[in-house]
Give the backbone structure.
Amino acid sequence: MLASNLPWLLLHSRNRQSPFPGLGHSGSGSTLLGYIGIDTIIEQMRKKTMKAGFDFNIMIVGHSGLGKSTLVNTLFKSQVSRWSSGWGGEHKIPKTVEIKAVSHVIEEGGVKMKLTVIDTPGFGDQINNENCWDPISKYINEQYEKFLKEEVNIARKKRIPDTRVHCCLYFISPTGHSLRQLDIEFMKHLSRVVNIIPVIAKSDTMTPDEKNEFKHRVRKELETHGIEYYPQNEFDDDMEDKNENDKIREAMPFAVVGSDKEFQVNGKRVLGRKTAWGVVEVENPNHCEFALLRDFLIRSHLQDLKEVTHNIHYETYRARRLNDNGGLHPISANNTQESNL
Amino acid sequence: HCVWKKHSEKQYVGFATLPNQVHRKSVKKGFDFTLMVAGESGMGKSTLVNSLFLTDLYKDRKLLNAEERINQTVEIIKHTVDIEEKGVKLKLTIVDTPGFGDAVNNNECWKPITDYIDQQFEQYFRDESGLNRKNIQDNRVHCCLYFIPPFGHGLRPVDVEFMKALHEKVNVVPLIAKADCLTPSEIKKLKDRVRDEIERFGIKVYQFPECDSDEDEEFKQLDKELKECCPFAVIGSNTVVEARGQRVRGRLYPWGIVEVENQSHCDFVKLRNILIRSHMHDLKDVTCDMHYENYRAQCIQDMTSKLTQDNRMESPIPMLPLPTPDVETDRLIKMKDEELARMQEMLNKMQQQIHDGKDQ
């Protein structure tokens, strides 16, 4: 019979073990493998987050006619934009920029997501568009304020409802020349407050060469004006992130086309736009960069968008509020009213 | 307005990858867990901790004799160890409480322990209320294993008082220590007695959350068994013995070999599973969502009531005895005090506004 002092073991077992190994059927044996079971915490976390579900709030900004609603519907393969509730008539351009938020719960692979699309009709449509981003800025800050208020409450909710804007898709008009003054003003004012992802709308008006040149010019202009779009350089966590994000930054802004109609191409049904000279396939990487945008936005960086919003933009807002003499000053003229949602 | 939509197979958007995106970030960051062990000397606390986490945290320990123990007060000693398994990093902190229950007069011997727990809450509260929240260190105690001696007939007065002093501050998991000195029927009797007394004295030990309705039958059955097994009767060991042709952790007696991980010998495996493999995350959640929130709410209430009472603008937070600070810590404390004072004022005004809003 042997007896010896066990040194500190750190062995990696190859097999994936159930949360209750050694219980139930496997009998009463014991193991010296040195498997503690810490990695199961990932599974414990996953269960909890799956149960709780996710929120995602996306804002779309751009003057009317750029296909914003269609693009969002295409992204989430669902009629999630506010124009989807079967409106019949024309879009009526409002006198000032309005903020309209619509929420849907969509589910995929057991994951439930409450998606809120915040539309901004009226942006850039007036004759005089000075400061037309003010209502947008105000809305974004109001959401931060709401969250902050809940956070400092005595009896605060376990899961604070998150209405903060996680991502702002900014639609650039495919003029082929350069950014408009309004584009620059908007992004300058808001890139420090919210994650901005610029996209080139209705890019099927440009040939591949025109597209590349335009993208290149736009990127240069953004750089010249010091506009940091998402994913921002300064927030790269480590080399792995930096490499991945560098590639994305160089490919942005994505030139996209949206569509909710399907056509038959080579025996397959695809989403696209049918013209006399052919079908523009939305998900064909040779035709446009929709698939890139979708993968980036949804399949790889969705969580990161939320985290940057929470850890950086929100914290900046909060720090500023704390520094303001510790007092509450009204955000709007009448802050006793709820913002219209 | 909210509309429910379900997707068909064809329409694959891709946000089903969300849990993986969350997972990836957590694995990068790593996890932390703080476990406190409390009970008289000689209950096998250190041995059990080493058995649970396959560590050897107490290598250079020097055991005190009775004389040396006479003047010893309850200390709080922290051991930290980084463990990595399958790419997941855990920073484990064990909070030891030597001296507890060892004196002749053990009146309020739990006070240093409750003070320690409160201090960690206070530290977290300050950090959370401060300006720079980037790298907050979470030192809050997530679970307290309390070792009940197997020699008696149930809970002793000190056991009851200790658990009652702590049950609203930390997740208390009572254990029956050194269970190898009891026969199976004695263990059952003792467990029943202890469970009964826990209920009778109104001690709120850690409750395992209810099983989801969509879990399979086997899981539900196992969950039920676990719950009925409390308090866990445990045995620990730092030695390896050979039993039934295998090398196992165990204790060698002339009359047989006790195997730590043998379920018919003791509840060690069940405890380990609860603590690490199935409820570690929940223990942390309950600490954050319940114990800490209670502390915080109490703290804020005390702050605001004191402010209105004294009509002063200074920081009235009860300063718990912190270890002797150096200049740098002093400066940080002063900075945080100022932040906190600003925070209080803002809170006050907010509470006032909410009040006014209600009256309208």
About this structure: Residues 327-359 of chain B form the longest helix (33 residues). Chain B touches chain A through 94 residues (CB under 8 Å). Confidence is low (pLDDT under 50) at residues 1-10, 312-326 of chain B. Residues 169 and 294 of chain B are 8 Å apart (CA to CA).
